[in-house]
Structure formats: structure tokens, C-alpha cells
Design a protein that fits this description.
It is built from 13 helices and no strands. It is mostly helical and about 300 residues long. Helix 4 runs antiparallel to helix 5 and helix 7 packs antiparallel against helix 8. About 5% of the residues have low confidence.
């Protein structure tokens, strides 16, 4: 047993414990319990169910019923989550047989708190059926109301039919109306969330061709990034894509309304000098510019 670890040691432990129980039965209970504790401390979740059931069976046959229930309670938390509902079913069954059905209420409460949502509906229906057999109508109705939030009216029609028949048989107009109100609210809740069955939603696994296409696209993106970086460096250095050919100057288009002036031929123009008329200068040209107004008037009279 010391040479192998779980899960490889699991069949060895099962064979060893069975041979030990078959040989000593209830004579060495402390030694047997010590062996079981060593095994359950190392067992994996996948193999825990069989080992815990064997441990609980040994306590029922050769030990104490209370210890057997403790072992089953531990097993419900130690097993894989997929097997948890089955372990709680075994636990409830053994508690009902050994301590009575009323004692199983505690186990039902614990199961409802620990189970995943997909396993709550059958457990709640079993619990409600138990309360109906015991005559606890209000407790059964409370269980239906609690489980309703996890049950879709379209996918879990059996739950709503069971609750409807319960209200028809044990309820009144007010409780039946309350059931319909809860159903409408749950319909709105599931319409918003859009919950689908797990077996409908299939996970898409990419094919080899899709993987290669993604790798090529990734490489192309990396090349484009490198080219963009090289062009940016070249622009910063004044060289874009190597030496560029000389560019020709473009002449602007001719404007038909533009007036052409021959400025270059100004040196060859024949400029003639003309005398300025005396009337332009007025009194300044007649030599009276230095006389006052009275003197000029006296000169004109003389």
C-alpha cells in the first residue's frame, strides 16, 4: 500500500479492507477504523463513493449507527459533484430506516444547500412528497415555492404539473392564484436569462485547417506591423522606401483673363520729354510766388 498512490492504490485498498473485515469482522474495530481513515484521507473524488459506502456498511454491521451516519455525511461532501445527489439519496434512505422519516428532514435541508441547480428539482420533489405524506401542507408548499426559481416552465413541465395538482388537492383559490403568479414571474426570469439545456449547447472544437488559418493570419499581421514600423523609421530619417527619382515641377495652368506685361523690354522703350504747361504751376510760374495778395492786386491794377 505504501508503494502506490491513488487512484492506482484504490483496488488494493478495497481488496485489503474486504479481506480484513471478512477475517476479523467486529473483533478489531479500532484497527479497522484506522485503516478506513487512512484510505479516505488519500482517496480521490472519483473513487471516494465506493470506499465511503464500504466504511458506512462496516459501521452499521459492527459499529454504531451514529458513526455510520457521520461517515455518510462526510461522503456527500467528499465525492465528485456529479455523484453528490446519489450519495445524498443513500444518506436519506439510511437515516429514514435507522432513525425514522422525520429525521431525514435535516438531510433534505443539507442536500438542498449543497446540490447543484440541475439536481435540485428531483430532490425538492422528493422532499415535498415526504411532507405531503406526513400531512405538512404548508411545509410542502414552501418547498414548491423555493424550487420554482430553478425550474423553467418550458423545460421542467413535470414540476409545475405536480405543484398544480398539489394546489388543486390541498389548496384554495388564493394559493392557486399565488402559484400562477410565481409561474409568470419565473417565465419572465427565464425569458431574460435565456437558459438552454446543457446537452444542446455543444462546444465547438477548432479543426486543424482553422488552426493553420489562424496561424497564417497571425503571421500576416506580424509582417504588416513590421512593414509599418520600417516605413515609419524611414520617414523619420527622410528616406521612404530607398532613393526617390527627381520630381518634375508642374507649371500652373494658363489664365485666359490674365494681362501679360512685357517687363523685360523696359530698357528699349523710347521716352520723349514734353514741356509742362504753365497753367499747371499757376502763380508760381509767373514769379509772384513771393508777393502777398494785396501786392499782386496792386500790380494787376497798375
Amino acid at each position: 500500500l505504501d508503494l502506490f498512490n491513488f487512484p492506482h492504490a484504490f483496488p488494493i485498498w478495497i481488496a485489503y479492507l474486504k479481506r480484513f473485515i471478512q477475517r476479523y469482522k467486529g473483533k478489531k474495530k479500532e484497527r479497522a477504523r484506522d485503516l478506513f481513515e487512512q484510505a479516505v484521507a488519500k482517496v480521490t473524488k472519483e473513487n471516494a463513493r465506493s470506499l465511503y459506502l464500504l466504511y458506512a456498511k462496516y459501521e452499521e454491521d459492527h459499529g454504531l449507527a451514529r458513526r455510520a451516519m457521520d461517515v455518510l455525511e462526510r461522503s456527500c461532501k467528499a465525492v465528485d459533484i456529479k455523484e453528490r445527489a446519489a450519495m445524498y439519496s443513500v444518506y436519506i434512505s439510511r437515516v429514514s430506516d435507522l432513525f425514522g422519516v422525520t429525521k431525514s428532514r435535516e438531510v433534505y435541508h443539507e442536500a438542498i444547500r449543497q446540490l447543484p441547480k440541475q439536481d435540485l428539482k428531483p430532490m425538492c420533489l422528493r422532499y415535498a412528497s415526504l411532507e405531503r405524506r406526513l400531512g405538512e401542507i404548508d411545509r410542502a408548499r414552501a418547498i414548491y415555492q423555493y424550487a420554482a426559481q430553478f425550474c423553467s416552465p418550458t423545460r421542467d413541465g413535470d414540476f409545475w404539473e405536480d405543484w398544480k395538482s398539489f394546489e388543486v388537492q390541498h389548496g384554495n383559490e388564493e394559493t392557486f392564484t399565488e402559484m400562477l403568479r410565481v409561474k409568470r414571474s419565473v417565465v419572465g426570469q427565464f425569458a431574460t436569462v435565456q437558459l438552454l439545456p446543457t446537452d444542446v449547447v455543444a462546444k465547438h472544437k477548432p479543426t486543424k485547417a482553422e488552426i493553420r488559418a489562424k496561424e497564417r493570419a497571425k503571421k500576416a499581421d506580424e509582417m504588416s506591423i513590421l512593414e509599418a514600423e520600417s516605413k515609419a523609421d524611414a520617414q523619420a530619417n527622410g528616406e521612404v522606401g530607398g532613393p526617390q527619382p527627381p520630381t518634375e515641377k508642374k507649371t500652373p495652368a494658363a489664365n485666359p483673363e490674365e494681362i501679360e506685361l512685357d517687363i523685360d523690354d523696359d530698357d528699349d522703350m523710347d521716352v520723349q520729354e514734353m514741356p509742362v504747361p504753365a497753367a499747371v504751376f499757376g502763380a508760381a510760374s509767373s514769379g509772384d510766388s513771393g508777393l502777398g495778395a494785396k501786392a499782386r492786386f496792386a500790380r494787376k491794377q497798375g
